[in-house]
Design goal:
Blueprint lengths: L3 H19 L9 E7 L2 E7 L6 H22 L7 H7 L6 E2 L2 H16 L9 H6 L13 H8 L7 E4 L4 E4 L12 H15 L5 E5 L2 E5 L8 E6 L6 E7 L2 E7 L4 E4 L2 E4 L2 E2 L4 E2 L4 E8 L2 H25 L3 E7 L5 E5 L1 H9 L4
Antiparallel strand pairs: 1-2, 2-6, 3-5, 4-5, 6-7, 7-10, 8-9, 10-15, 11-12, 13-14, 15-16, 16-17
C-alpha cells in the first residue's frame, strides 16, 4: 500500500513531467485516456491536456492507479488484510484506529445514515451476504428466523466515531462494515482531487458507473454523461455536467429470481429484506461522488414515493425511473435535477 506522502509525491511528479514536456509547445497536448480494473469493476479516466508525452502519461497513470489501489487496499471486503477487513475481525469494544481516508468514509456514511433515517447503513453487510449478494452466492433466501437474527447485528448507531483519535468503536462486537455502496464514489473523488492537485482541472473519472467531472471536455463544452436505461442497451438521457459528480443505483444488474419473484440486491437495512417496490434506477448529481453514491443507494431503499419526497424536500438532484406493470418506465426528476437540464438547455 502506498502511503499518503508517496501519493502526494506522485502528483508533484506528474506536474513536473508535464511542465517539462509542454514547455516549448504553444498548444495543450491531447486528451490522455486510461482504463483498467479496480475494486471488482472497471474504471475509465480522461484528462484534457494530459496526453502527448510518454513520460507525462506514465506519471499520470501511476498517480491514478496509486489512488485507486490505496482505496481498495483500505476498504475492500474481499482483501483479508484490508483495513476494513481487520476492523470487521476486531470483535471487542475497544476503539479501532483507522486511516484518515477510512475515517472520512465512515463519517460520511454516518452523515447519510442520520440524514436518511437509516435507509443508508454500512453495517447491512451480513444481510447482503445472507440474501446471496456477497462473496458467496446463496442457494436459497434466508429464513425469517435468520433475517431477524442478523438484524440484531445491523444498525449504524452501533458504531461510535471519535474524530479526536480517528477511531471507530463497536458498541456490539458482532457489527461489521461494508463500504461497497460508498467506497467507489470516494475512490472517484480521490482520483479527481489528485488530478486537480497535479494541475489538471479538466477530467472525467468513472469507476463502476460512478462519475466525477472537472471543468469542460476537450471541445470546451460540458461533459456529456449518459444515464443508462434499465434492462436495455440504450440511454435514458444525457446529462451535461461541469465540476460535478453523478452516481446511479439500480436493481437491473444484480438480482435473481426465486419462486416466481425478483429478489433485488438492494437490501433495506430497516427491514432486513430486499426492497419490493417498482423503482428500477436512481441517479443523483452532487458536488462529491462519495455523497452521490450513498444518496443513490438511500433513495433506492426509500422507493419511488418516499425517495422522491425526500429528494425534493432536501433539494437533491435526482432522476428516478420506475417500472410500469405492463413494461416501460416512468421518468420522474426532482426540481433540482430539472434545473441542471434547464441550465444546459436540455428539454
Amino acid at each position: 500500500m502506498l502511503p499518503s506522502f508517496a501519493i502526494r509525491a506522485l502528483s508533484f511528479a506528474v506536474a513536473a513531467a508535464m511542465a517539462t514536456a509542454c514547455g516549448s509547445r504553444p498548444q495543450a497536448p491531447p486528451t490522455f485516456e486510461l482504463s483498467g480494473s479496480t475494486m471488482g469493476t472497471r474504471y475509465v479516466v480522461k484528462v484534457v491536456g494530459g496526453g502527448g508525452d510518454v513520460e507525462a502519461e506514465r506519471a499520470l497513470a501511476e498517480l491514478v492507479e496509486a489512488e485507486l489501489t490505496h482505496v481498495d487496499e483500505l476498504m475492500s471486503t474481499y482483501r483479508a488484510e484490508s483495513e476494513l477487513s481487520r476492523f470487521n475481525r476486531h470483535a471487542d469494544l475497544t476503539p479501532f484506529a483507522v486511516s484518515e481516508a477510512t475515517f472520512e468514509v465512515f463519517a460520511e456514511a454516518a452523515r447519510i445514515s442520520d440524514w436518511t433515517d437509516g435507509a443508508f447503513d454500512i453495517t447491512v453487510g451480513p444481510l447482503v451476504e445472507a440474501w446471496g449478494f456477497g462473496a458467496s452466492p446463496a442457494s436459497a433466501p434466508p429464513s425469517d428466523v435468520q433475517v431477524e437474527s442478523l438484524r440484531q447485528r445491523v444498525g449504524f448507531a452501533k458504531l461510535q466515531l471519535d474524530a479526536s483519535t480517528r477511531s471507530v468503536r463497536k458498541l456490539d462486537p458482532a457489527v461489521e462494515g461494508d463500504l461497497s455502496a460508498i467506497a467507489k464514489g470516494y475512490a472517484v473523488d480521490r482520483v479527481a482531487e489528485a488530478l486537480e492537485a497535479a494541475g489538471f482541472p479538466r477530467f472525467m473519472v468513472e469507476v463502476g458507473g460512478e462519475v466525477r467531472v472537472g471543468g469542460t471536455n476537450d471541445a470546451g463544452a460540458p461533459w456529456r454523461i449518459a444515464i443508462e436505461q434499465p434492462d436495455a442497451v440504450s440511454f435514458q438521457t444525457i446529462v451535461p455536467l461541469v465540476d460535478a459528480a453523478v452516481a446511479t443505483s439500480g436493481d437491473y444488474r444484480n438480482f435473481y429470481e426465486w419462486e416466481g419473484g425478483r429478489v433485488s440486491h438492494t437490501i433495506d437495512p430497516r427491514t432486513g429484506r430486499p426492497v419490493e417496490h417498482a423503482l428500477a434506477s436512481v441517479t443523483v448529481v452532487s458536488g462529491r461522488c462519495v455523497t452521490a453514491d450513498a444518496l443513490a443507494t438511500a433513495l433506492s431503499v426509500l422507493g419511488p414515493d418516499d425517495g422522491y419526497r425526500f429528494a425534493v424536500a432536501n433539494d437533491v438532484a435526482a432522476l428516478m425511473l420506475t417500472r410500469w406493470a405492463g413494461g416501460g418506465f416512468d421518468e420522474r426528476s426532482t426540481p433540482a435535477f430539472q434545473r441542471l437540464l434547464d441550465e444546459a438547455g436540455v428539454r
